[in-house]
Amino acid sequence: MGFFKRKEKVNLDDKFKSLYKEINQITANAGNELDFTIKYSQLVLASEKYNDLLKLIDQGANFDKKHFQSLKDSVDQEARRVKGLIDED
């Protein structure tokens, strides 16, 4: 009966850290971006990935939800600011 592999336990904290590192890279790139349209899309992507982080916390990752919600809110606020600059043109 070797048809079924044992399910590997997913380490939510490791997955969280990896995703958070990815978000930091995206937001750093957005911070250096001069084209507001690209900057806006990077910020929206970072916000979506923060949603994924918050879901991991809900699933049991051992991190402070309020802290990461606050970081997401900051990214959302910056995205709205950049969107306003785009819409002015």
Looking at the structure, what is the overall shape? elongated
Note the total helix count: 3
Alpha carbon gap, first and last residue: 65 Å
Structural class: mainly alpha
Largest sheet report: none
What letter string, H or E per element, gives the SSE order? HHH
User: Radius of gyration, Cα only, in angstroms?
Assistant: 17 Å
Helix content class: over 70%
Mean pLDDT: 92
Description of the structure:
The protein has 89 residues and is mainly alpha-helical. The chain is 78% helix and 0% strand. It has three helices and no strands. Helix 1 (12-32) packs antiparallel against helix 2 and helix 2 packs antiparallel against helix 3 (65-88). The radius of gyration is 17 Å and the shape is elongated.
Q: How is the topology of this model organized?
A:
Layout: H1 12-32, H2 36-59, H3 65-88
Helix pairs in contact: 1-2, 2-3
What are the key terms here?
single chain; mainly alpha; 3 helices; elongated
